[in-house]
């Protein structure tokens, strides 16, 4: 991929993140009164509130994944395309190095995202653990986009 293609990809990711951010913030507002969740609270959720929680979790998953792809693209541009295979921790470390997000907080957000995408617990206590982990990481997602936008502007990475 050429540098121009990487920059266009980065611009597309940032725009996608902006759209995802708007929906994610709405979902955060809907579930905030319910947090933290307990197993008993999950079992007692009315259908509308359950839909809000599920929407929050899905939006968390999509938003975290797209932010991570955006961070990976930034790393590739900044490393002049030399980094093809990056682990989630590699991406977190580079984002930290660039001053975009804390590596440990970002790694935890991505671990939470991965659990949401690959584990579907049936027990309410396990569901509560996932919901609460996503809630604890929601500020990390909310602040990462702002930091990405500052970095892209400061480094002149806009296409």
List strands and helices in order, with pairings.
Elements lengths: L2 H29 L7 H5 L3 H32 L9 H10 L5 H16 L5 H32 L4
Structural summary, described in words:
This protein has 159 residues and is an all-alpha fold. The protein has one domain (3-155): Up-down Bundle (Four Helix Bundle (Hemerythrin (Met), subunit A)), CATH 1.20.120. Helices cover 78% and strands 0% of the residues. The chain has helices at residues 3-31, 39-43, 47-78, 88-97, 103-118, 124-155. The two termini are 14 Å apart.
The gist of it:
By secondary structure, the protein is mostly helical.
Q: Quick check: average pLDDT?
A: 93
Structural class: mainly alpha
Distance between the termini: 14 Å
Number of helices: 6
Shape: elongated
> So what's the CATH class?
Mainly Alpha
CATH architecture: Up-down Bundle
CATH topology name, in short, is: Four Helix Bundle (Hemerythrin (Met), subunit A)
Indicate the percent of residues in helices.
over 70%
Beta-strand percentage range: under 5%
Radius of gyration over alpha carbons? Answer: 17 Å
Q: For the report, how would you describe the main beta sheet?
A: none
Summarize this structure as a short list of keywords or feature phrases.
single chain, 159 residues, 6 helices
